[in-house]
Amino acid sequence: MQFGIFSVGDVTPDPTNGRTPTERERIKAMVTIALKAEEVGLDVFATGEHHNPPFVPSSPTTMLGYIAARTERLILSTATTLITTNDPVKIAEDYAMLQHLADGRVDLMLGRGNTAPVYPWFGKDIRDGISLAIENYHLLHRLWREDVVDWQGRHRTPLQGFTSTPRPLDGVPPFVWHGSIRSPEIAEQAAYYGDGFFANNIFWPKEHFQRLIGLYRRRYEHYGHGSADQAIVGLGGQVFMRKNSQDAVREFRPYFDNAPVYGHGPSLEEFMAQTPLTVGSPQQVIDRTLEFREHFGDYQRQLFLMDHAGLPLKTVLEQLDILGEEVVPVLRKEFAALRPAHVPEAPTHASLVAAARAKAGEAEAAR
Prior knowledge:
By secondary structure, the chain is of the alpha/beta class.
């Protein structure tokens, strides 16, 4: 199982002192957080993609390429790659390039985003959102697996004899997660291709994500990729920790109360009761995260949101120390002990290459 963090890259005032970091400070902070993630033993760093204030990560490949050069083990991912408004040809080439530079330590999570105006900003119509997601990924999937592509669709100009360059590293494309918080069509798409499905598991009650993940698992089995419990599932989570739970609640409350996404709404206690947000001791985070398996079944990737709502960099780094030293080691041990032998581990470039070679060997032997 893989553990890591994901960032939305928001530039938010610190409500305790009113100071807002500059864009440069926030971008540099995200890099520092990624480096810290590797230092404390996490597996994954993922960045969102946004094209509007108050967010800064408009170019995930630029940031991830820079982080790749400064890390050795960390898997570099997106928390959202906008499959609807990015050209699939450009996605194919950008992420294959990043894959080579990072020696395979790359995957990506496709999504439609949560900012409606992004569609006209990139010449698209929001009413075509699902259609764009389906058609664009069909093309991306082919571009990574076929050396020469002839293609015609509804949303972009045709391709004739086109070859995307560079080709995927070792002939194996980056692993793809399809992220969704509300769309059964995306769960169906992930199942059809045998890709991963990521539920951000942040703002909704567990019953909402149980329906989406349950649909994905059933359809994954329907399409012949394996049994439902072998489907590749990732979950988000949101935590803030201190040694004593009372201290954690006291420190995090002003950030929660003023956060752009949920501030001035439900109380912190109400939000914790109704969503997976956990503010408390490391043991409380361990216990709550282990409950995810009870709700959603065995899964392969757990990412935490920890650097949002104006939290200062120093505090985020402290949180990562706690996560890496006190929480994740316990979760690794517990999840590994509970996972049945037939449930696969999280995909990596090495495991995907090995699977591709084994399949090629079987095909050769059958000739």
